[in-house]
Amino acid sequence: MSPTSAATPRPSRRLGALRELWPFLKPHRALALGWLLFLALSSGASLVLPLAFRHIIDQGFGHSSNTVINQTFIALFGVALVLAFATAARYFCITLLSERALASLRQTLYAHVIRLDVGFFEKSRVGELLSRLSADTEVVQALIGSGVSVALRSAVMLVGAAVAMVWTAPSLAGLTALVIPAVMLPILVFGRRVQKLSRASQDRLADAAAIANETLNASTAVKAYAREDIESTRYGGAITRALATARRRIGMRSLLTMAVIVLVFGAITLVLWAGARHVLAGTLGAGVLGQFVLYAVFAAGSVAGLSEVWGDVLRAAGAMERIGELLGERADIVDPSQPRALPQPMRSELRFDGVTFHYPTRPDTAALHDFTLTVHPGETVALVGPSGAGKSTVFSLLLRFYDPQSGSIRIDGVDLRETTLAGLRGAIALVPQETVIFAGSAADNIRFGRQDAGDDEVREAARAAEAHEFIGALDHGYDAELGERGVRLSGGQRQRIAIARAILRDAPLLLLDEATSALDAQSEAAIQQALARLEQGRTTLVIAHRLATVQRADRIVVMDGGRIVAQGTHESLLAEGGLYAELARLQFVA
After folding, report:
1. What is the CATH number of the domain that holds 247?
2. Could you report the per-residue pLDDT of 312-325, keeping only the tens digit for each?
3. Hey, is 507 helix, strand or coil?
4. Boundary of a domain, candidates 456, 484, 506
5. Which pairing describes strands 539-543 and 509-513: parallel, antiparallel, or unpaired?
């Protein structure tokens, strides 16, 4: 299933999906071996208990011997001590194993997702990705932490009890074996349906998580349009659909559990009836029957435990299938097998040669068509034009969020597809139109531009971006928490943080996307001075709808429909007429 939707599931791989857990369990073999050792010890201690019970009946009660009873109960208490220690140790090993394996799984999954390209995130919902990182991994953790332990302990106990039953009373054991097919049949019949419903239940929960993530991250828009009731109803509908699917899954598991219990304890009743007749006939001792019954109870409990765990296994298989699909996603934009390094020091000459590009989501419409442009080292070039002209696409291709379908883009003669993504993006500083602020301190948000920057460098960048004054006015200053998505800051303040990041990055190539759009006139004047200093000695591309902000550019490139329709200085373009003159007339007259 594509992470974009839960409506088109791929064919299920069923239990085979659980094989993908092995790489995360393999490094913790010592814990697994310890768990198996203590599992064998606890199971062995449990299987000794019926022998003690038979000994009490036949030797203690039958001969009225206090000595035998005392010795038997002391031995019984010793077995209980062994059982208690082995059970606790088994729980410690398997629980720690599950925590370590799932921590590794979550880290691997997150590291994989964060490295996927922009195209993946355009077709994915963040809420569903979070569901796979949290809800799905929790289901898998429940299987490893308790389900697997219960399943293996039940299997060991079932085999041990079955062998002991045959050794104790072969005729009664044969009678018990007759009902095993009847017990396994409902597990096979209901099991596949439970797995499908488990997968569907996880998908419906992911849908609800996606809605919640989307609306909570846009809380101001929701409130501005008074959509609280509408969004609550939409989320409630998603939860109702998830509940309906869960109800069907729970119902199916309940039927499975009921069928197994009825069949198992029906078999025990039948065996007890047959055993009681043997005791009355004198062909079977009372202690032997008691021992056999306890083994039968152990076997019945193990079968019931396996049936319960089977549902968890199927649910975890569905969750692991979803996780496996995410791990199976591959980025289209990757490093070349033999990368070329960008020249050092960089001159930062940009060259677009006949670039044509279609977004994957809009394959029939060219965002850029036969786009050719050369930006000389140290030159400041402004890209202007109406919305949809392709200006932002130029930035996306420079950052190699996408590759063009034809043509090439080169920096200092090196094709972007020939160098590493880290090397390319490390040479670029971006000030986006929509600034992203993280839920950390002001200093951490500025240091996002260069992680190894010292405190003095962070403050200097803030001063250059005209951000030092408002940061100093915050409680705790540079250590002040800015809140999720920067809710404590105004739009202009958030944009100054982004400019401070770019200043701190000190990259040879600078991309400014409406860098002053959220500033008032006074702040914009100060920022323009800071940007002028920042642009010195750097190749700079500027996107701006407000033409007043690009008049100082060395060259203005006018774009329309993914093509360059004119280029020159502000004065020459005004004199030439055309699209730029029309845009200028509309803005300056207004």
Report:
1. 1.20.1560.10
2. 777 777 777 778 77
3. coil
4. 506
5. parallel
pLDDT above 50 (res 428): yes
Residue 387 located in a structural domain:
no
Q: What does the DSSP assignment read for 38-70? A: HHHHHHHHHHHHHHHHHHIIIIIIHHT-HHHHH
Structure-token pair, residue 183: 């017990």
Domain end: 485, 506, 527, which one? Answer: 506
Condensed to tens digits (0 to 9), the pLDDT of residues 536-569 reads 778 888 887 776 677 778 898 988 888 888 888 8
Phi-psi category of residue 124: left, alpha or beta, with phi > 0 → left and psi -120 to 50 → alpha: beta
Map tokens 């020249």 to a residue: 343
Q: Strands of 414-415's sheet, edge to edge?
A: 366-375, 350-358, 406-411, 414-415
CB count in 10 Å sphere of residue 178:
10
Mean pLDDT of the chain: 77
What are φ and ψ of residue 413, in 5° steps? 85, -5
Domain containing 482 equals 436-506
Structure tokens belonging to residue 245:
């699917």
- For residue 570, give both structure tokens: 């502000």
DSSP letters spanning 94-160: HHHHHHHHHHHHHHHHHHHHHTS-HHHHHSS-HHHHHHIIIIIHHHHHHIIIIIHHHHHHHHHHHHH
For the chain, what is the domain count? Answer: 2
Q: Which residue, chain included where needed, has tokens 């208690």?
A: 84
- The owner of tokens 């005791």 is 279
Is residue 355 a part of any domain in this protein? Answer: no
CATH code, domain carrying 449: 3.40.50.300
Percent of the chain with pLDDT over 90: 3
Dist. CA 240–CA 208, nearest whole Å: 9
Residue 410 is predicted with a pLDDT of 92
Q: Does residue 394 contact residue 541 with C-beta atoms inside 8 Å?
A: yes
- pTM for the full predicted model: 0.66
Give the DSSP letter of residue 14: G
User: What span, in angstroms and rounded, lies between the C-alpha atoms of 37 and 364?
Assistant: 63
313 within a domain of the structure (yes/no): yes
Nearest to 529 by CA among 503, 509, 511: 503
pLDDT band at 352 (very low <50, low <70, confident <90, very high): very high
Q: Are 506 and 358 in contact (CB under 8 A)?
A: no
* Tokens of residue 539, six digits: 């190749």
Q: What is the pLDDT of residues 134-163, one digit of tens each?
A: 777 777 777 776 666 677 777 777 777 778
Rounded to whole angstroms, the Cα distance separating 233 from 229 reads 6
Q: What are the Cα distances from residue 326, in Å, to 5, 15, 102, 197?
A: 13, 17, 16, 20
Pairwise CA distance, residues 516 & 524, whole Å: 6
Residue 523 included in any domain: no
Which residue stretches of 435-569 are H helix? 442-447, 455-464, 468-473, 491-505, 521-535
Q: Which two tokens stand for residue 342?
A: 């960008």
What digits encode the pLDDT tens for the residues 432-456? 877 777 777 888 888 888 788 888 8
Relative to beta strand 414-415, strand 406-411 is antiparallel
